Prior knowledge:
The structure holds two protein chains of two kinds. In chain A, a hairpin with a 5-residue loop joins strand 4 and strand 5. In chain A, about 0% of the residues lie in helices and about 50% in strands. By secondary structure, chain A is an all-beta fold. Chain B has strands at about 10, 20-25, 35, 45, 60-65, 70-75, 85-90, 95, 100-105. The termini of chain B are far apart. Chain B is built from no helices and nine strands. In chain B, the strands form two sheets. In chain B, strands 1, 3, 4, 7, 8 and 9 form a six-stranded mixed beta sheet that branches. Chain B has a three-stranded antiparallel beta sheet with strand order 2-6-5, with no helix packed on it. In chain B, about 0% of the residues lie in helices and about 45% in strands. The chains are: A mainly beta, B mainly beta. At the A-B interface, strand 5 and strand 10 of A face strand 7 and strand 8 of B.
Amino acid sequence: QVRLQESGPGLVKPSQTLSVTCTVSGDSMRDLSYYWSWVRQRPGEGLQWIASMSNRGGTYYNPALKSRVSISVDTSENQFSLRLDSVTAADTAVFFCAALTGVRGVGQFDFWGQGSLITVSS
Amino acid sequence: SYDLTQPPSVSVSPGQTATITCSGDNLGDKIVYWYQRRPGQSPTLIIYRDSQRPSGVPERFSASNSGNTATLTISETQALDEADYHCQAWDSDIVVFGGGTKLTVL
Lengths: 122, 106
């Protein structure tokens, strides 16, 4: 059973970069073929997919966020991370890390972290 | 961009059947997934490939997808089914979620 746990700053100032990390446990990321993903939920809204990345570096981004997003995978640390640049209050959300099975039109998020609330405020 | 539309809220009495819809252009041509998110918890997959239930999901949960609408049906609804339900599909290489439906069991 794969377990995911986010760690984030809690509070980020406007215009700064938001960074959040997901630690994978229960198995080695190297032995898993998931696309490691980030999904957020802004207050009062639905889920929004942000980006996904495989161990081999294959990457998919939500076009709406692509210009501000960077995703990385570190299999040696069993972690993957998200950076979101130039944040505004509209980026306040619960950020989930998740393991995506499949890509290119077919696939679901099989495992999710508990979520990390990140507030953008001065 | 491709949009999935869900009703913001659905109410049901205990023991009755709840129906939650997810609508999108020619959604029946795509594969739909459903997630349940209980308050304070992370989402969990309850339906994959339109109508398949992962191991451990009660048979009370069923789903279908045809035309422009995917439907999640919860029969014999229980208090513990009170949660937000989110549909998900793909638009080419992009993951799309619906806006989520809050199910209230009155």
